[in-house]
Amino acid sequence: MSGNATESEIAALDARVGDLSRRLHAVNEAIYSANSKRGVRWCIVSYYSVALFANGLVDRLVFWRSGVLLMVSICVGALGFIAADIITSHRTFSIVSGIACTVFGLLAGYFLLFCVNMQEARRRHEDLSLEFQRLNDQIKTLRNESKDLTSEMMQVQAHRQLLVEHLEDQRKLRSMEYRRNQLFQRNWRAMRSVEFEEYLEEVLQLLGYTIETTAITGDQGVDLIAVKQGIRIAIQVKGYLNSVSNSAIQEAFAGMAHYKCDCCAAITNSRFTNGAIQLAQSTGCILVHEDNFRDFVMGQLDLVQMARGRYGK
């Protein structure tokens, strides 16, 4: 996946998220509007339901409407008085509250019993009940749509995040490759002793190793100790013009035991003698030389993987 393709995909996903966000906002606005309408319809339907129930009850029991109105108003006023008295214990306020509740009961009862056209009320009640149900269905549909849009937007955002992380990894990789290539372009073949050792420190750190230097170059056969993924590698460094003999392998192997490392390696900018190669094969010492040095610097030759393969770490 190329960087340009990934960036164009991210841009497309951003546009998709924007579109989904706008649609989700519109759906939520529609839900809010439908909820408001439903609340109004519920109040009106409830009013007609109470009016129809009250008038039907009075008609069935052949009650005297004025008497019912008076009785209900007195009951409402009494309840208002009792409630106010219990809450405030203030008699004057309780009396005023009782009178106010009585007046409210009279007005409400009058509208329910005398001002309602029963035929019109039934028709309006049926129409509003149907509209109320339609609004319920609409809100349910809109909520499902909102849920689907939210889920889709989360999936798109998750995919976008993966692409962003991939793009960032690619950028880091390109940056690492550039830095490794810059290191390899240096005149490493001409380096000797401490200069080559310092150069290898830089390479190993770029490859993700933590470096421990020994007290003196060549001390106990180890110049560097590289640590990565819990694996300690004792490294003998040889910046030579001529071939490196098997003594370097012996020193690296001895240093591995002395410094309690997991494996050992010998790294040179030259080559190894046949004797050194044979000894390395028998001891498991990893060899890095002029022929595979580029793979080592570019991270294609991994000391940790080789150590695990040879020592089973």
Automatic annotation (TrEMBL):
It comes from the Bacteria. It holds the Pfam family Mrr_cat. Residues 189-296 form the Restriction endonuclease type IV Mrr domain. Keywords: Coiled coil, Endonuclease, Hydrolase, Membrane, Nuclease, Transmembrane, Transmembrane helix. Its EC number is 3.1.21.-. One of its GO terms (biological process) is DNA restriction-modification system. GO terms for molecular function: DNA binding; restriction endodeoxyribonuclease activity. The keyword Coiled coil applies. The chain crosses the membrane at residues 67-87, 93-116. Residues 118-159 form a coiled coil. The keyword Coiled coil applies. This is Restriction endonuclease. It comes from Blastopirellula sediminis.
